[in-house]
Amino acid sequence: MASTADSKHTELNGELTSCSCPCKKSKMENKVTVVLGAQWGDEGKGKVVDLLAVDSDIVCRCQGGNNAGHTVVVEGKEFDFHLLPSGIINQKCKSIIGNGVVIHLPGLFEELKKNELKGMQNWQERLIISDRAHLVLDLHQQMDGLQEAEKGKNSLGTTKKGIGPTYSSKASRNGIRIGDLMGDFSLFEDKFRTLAETCKRMFPSLEVDVESELSRYREYADKIRPMVRDTVSFLHKEIQSGRRVLVEGANAAMLDIDFGTYPYVTSSNCSIGGVCTGLGLPPKVIGDVLGVVKAYTTRVGDGPFPTELHDETGQLLQTRGHEVGVTTKRVRRCGWLDLVVVRYTAMVNGYTSICLTKLDILDTLKEIKIGVGYKLNGKMIDYFPSSMTELSNVEVEYITLPGWACSIEDVRQMDKLPEQARAYVKAIENFLQVPVKYIGVGPGRDSIISAE
C-alpha cells in the first residue's frame, strides 16, 4: 500500500481503493447491471436478461433455487430456465451460479440436458458454480411437502422444491455446500448422515436411502467438479479488468423474505441486498438497477392480492397472457397493475429504470385500470402494509385510462405505439418518477422496444 501524508488517495497494487475527492472513481464502480422483478414474479425477467446479455460478459444468479422459472424465446425456440442464468444462451457470456443460490444437482443436470437438446451449446465452457452455494437435497424436498401438509389450510403454497428447508439448514449451520462435495468425501458423508438423522427426528415419516444418495452424490462430485470455483475472487478480478456483469434476480421483490408479503414469500432476499450477499459484491459496483414490471399484476400461490380480478377481465388476462407457472404449472392469479406495490419495491431496490413487459396483452381492453393508492378503514395510507390482515382489507384507489383496442405486437418503435398505449406508459412513469426504458410487446427478444 502506498500513501503520503498530503494525499487524499489510497492505492493498493496501483488500484484506487478510496478517495475523499471527486477527481477519480475506482475502476470497479458501476460495472454491474442488475435486473429485478418488481412485483410477485413472472414479469418476464428472463427475456430482459437475454436481451441485455448480448452486451454483457458475465451473467449471474445470486439467490433462490429451482423454484424460479424463466422462459426465453430465441429464434422461435423456447428455453426454460430454473437454476441456470438466462444469459447462458449467449455463447459469449460466462454464466455464474453464485453463493446465495441453493442448488438441486439432479434438477440442474436435467435442466442442462433439456436445454442442450433444444440447441444450447458449449455450456460446459461457460458455466461456473460457487463452492459456497448450498445443496438442495431430496430430503429437503420431502420436508417441504411434509411441512406444507402439516399447515393444512394455512399452507403457503410453496413449490415443494425444497428451497425453504435448504435455507433453514443453511441458517441452522448444518447445511451442506458445494465445497463440501468437492473436498474429502468421507467428511461429506459424515455431514450428510448427520443432516439426514436430524431431519428424520423432525419428521419421522421422512424416508432417506442414505447409501443410495451417497453413491449418487459421489458421481455428481465428479460431474460438477470442472465447473466449481471461488466465484467471489473471480468476479472481483473480472470487474477490475473491465468486464460487464449482469445480475439476474430470481423470484421478485414482493416475495423477498424481509420485504415481501410475509409469510407468503420465498426464503431468500430477492431484492437488491441479495445481489451483494449472494455474490460477494460491494454496493459501489452496482450501476443500473432495472425493475421489470408486468403491464398488469399476477401472482402464483397464496397470499393477499389487492388488485386481483375474479371476473371476465381476470380470465382474459390469464388466457391472453398464457399465465401458467413455468416451474409449478399452476395458473397465475391476475389483476390490474398495482403501482402501490411497484412504488414500494422501487423504494427498496432503487430502480434506475423500468422495463414494462406484456403490454400487448392489454390490446383488446376498452378501459384499463391502474391501482394508485390504498385506503384502510376509509383513510388513505402512505405505506405498504406489513400486516397481511391489513393488506387483505385495503380498498384500492384506481385511475382509469382508455385502451387502444388494436394489436401492438408488431410495433418496434415507441412513437409508433398508439397514443393511448403511450399515455399508459407515461402514467406509470409519472407515478413512479422512474423512466420506462424498455417495453415488451411480444414473447421474443426482438419484441422489446427501446423507449430511449
UniProtKB/TrEMBL annotation:
* Sequence positions that bind Mg(2+): 42, 69
Cofactor needs: Mg(2+)
Q: What is its main location?
A: cytoplasm
* GO BP: any one term: 'de novo' AMP biosynthetic process
Its annotated pathway reads: Purine metabolism; AMP biosynthesis via de novo pathway; AMP from IMP: step 1/2
Catalytic residues of the enzyme:
42, 70, 170
- Does the record's keyword annotation contain Membrane? no
Where is the segment annotated Disordered? Answer: 149-168
State the superkingdom: Eukaryota
Give the multimer and partner information: Homodimer.
Q: Which family does it belong to?
A: Belongs to the adenylosuccinate synthetase family.
The name this protein goes by in its record: Adenylosuccinate synthetase
